[in-house]
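Need a sequence for this fold. Nothing fancy.
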């Protein structure tokens, strides 16, 4: 369920320094996968403390997803990364660069505050 074995394998490889495993975990966070896989991959990247530019759009997609079972864990992962300077800057830049529909802003404002122009 949720590609747990693949994700664990990539997490272990990433700990050994295999950069392509971070890329694979990031891909598992995309809309191409069901919510359990996305959650497992997001949580693995959190454990690895890896918030790359490639992850950011996937994380925002999860944060604004209609399924609260994806949205809530994504919020936890996002809150973790917002506590660190470099990931926080990366996430804030992405947030501020987009005009968020009202429905999405409802989920994002508790983490990021009001978006510019709203």
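Here you go.
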């Amino acid at each position: 369920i949720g590609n747990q074995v693949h994700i664990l394998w990539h997490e272990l490889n990433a700990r050994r320094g295999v950069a392509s495993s971070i890329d694979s975990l990031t891909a598992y966070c995309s809309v191409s996968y069901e919510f359990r896989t996305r959650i497992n991959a997001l949580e693995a990247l959190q454990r690895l403390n890896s918030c790359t530019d490639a992850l950011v759009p996937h994380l925002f997609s999860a944060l604004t997803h209609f399924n609260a079972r994806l949205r809530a864990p994504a919020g936890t992962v996002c809150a973790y990364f917002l506590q660190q300077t470099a990931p926080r800057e990366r996430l804030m830049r992405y947030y501020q660069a987009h005009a968020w529909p009202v429905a999405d802003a409802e989920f994002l404002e508790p983490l990021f505050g009001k978006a510019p122009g709203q």
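For context: Helices lie at 4-15, 19-28, 35-47, 55-63, 68-82, 85-96, 102-112.
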